[in-house]
Design brief:
globular, 14% strand, 7-stranded parallel beta sheet, single chain, Rossmann fold, alpha/beta, 250 residues
């Protein structure tokens, strides 16, 4: 794919779709990528217009689109033709997994976190492969490997699935120059865990991550593609050391 600028950190000329771009990690990723020259499309079931308007006031190109990732038709309509995509849409319900109505919560969590991710990738990947170029970043969670500090089994299972999907999609896309990578953060200061009592004593850094810290690990996945560095698949556990998990632990 053409590189519009000689700068090794430029995303000029690239359009990036962010599913889950209305807040949290998605909004922070949008700000970082916009600052590097990318044009942003922010898709979310919530209203991403305030984020897009804020970026435009700063002189960047950004638009918002309403999209429920569990709706395959809506996703295909939005994602068709996209060459660069971040999927960080997700939910993390906190409820009693032994409750009688928990099955419904389980189904909804997997519909958003797993099926929604698959919907986004299968809408984008064939076109990227046909064009012999593209990049996708999926946002999972360390909870999918470690069991997490706060999350329930529905969230843990769904994010474990995202980690597996990174590897499956990476194998699928790599022969056609489509690189699929992922990041797996620990607890992040977003609305997802707002008001929750997190035991910071279990976090060596003594604090949870900020959204921009996790977002800063996303844009290099695009830069690596532009510079034709052969890195695939990478599923970066962005907070493993801060959570007391050794970097090389299984």
């Amino acid at each position: 794919m053409a590189i519009a600028s000689a700068s090794p950190f430029s995303l000029e000329g690239q359009t990036i779709l962010i599913a889950g771009g209305a807040n949290g990690i998605g909004a922070s990723a949008a700000a970082i990528c916009a600052g590097l020259g990318a044009k942003l499309v922010l898709a979310d079931v919530s209203d991403a217009t305030p984020v897009a308007e804020s970026l435009r006031r700063e002189g960047h190109q950004a638009s918002a689109a309403s999209c429920d990732v569990t709706n395959r038709t809506a996703v295909e309509r939005l994602v068709s033709g996209v060459g660069t995509m971040v999927v960080c849409s997700g939910i993390c319900p906190f409820d009693d997994w032994m409750a009688d109505d928990w099955d419904d919560v389980y189904e909804r969590t997997n519909a958003v976190n797993v099926k929604g991710t698959v919907n986004c990738v299968r809408a984008a990947l064939p076109g990227m492969m046909e064009r012999c170029g593209g990049r996708i970043v999926l946002v999972g969670s360390l909870a999918g490997r470690s069991g997490g500090l706060l999350s329930g089994p529905h969230y843990v299972a769904s994010k474990g699935a995202v980690g597996a999907l990174v590897r499956w999609f990476a194998r699928k896309g790599a022969p056609r120059n489509v690189l699929v990578n992922g990041v797996a953060p620990g607890p992040v200061d977003t609305g997802m865990i707002a008001g929750r009592d997190l035991n910071l004593a279990a976090v060596p850094l003594g604090r949870i991550a900020r959204p921009e810290e996790i977002a800063s690990t996303i844009f290099p996945c695009f830069l690596w593609v532009f510079r034709r560095v052969h890195i695939v698949p990478l599923f970066l556990p962005t907070m493993r050391c801060s959570l007391g998990v050794a970097p090389n632990a299984a």
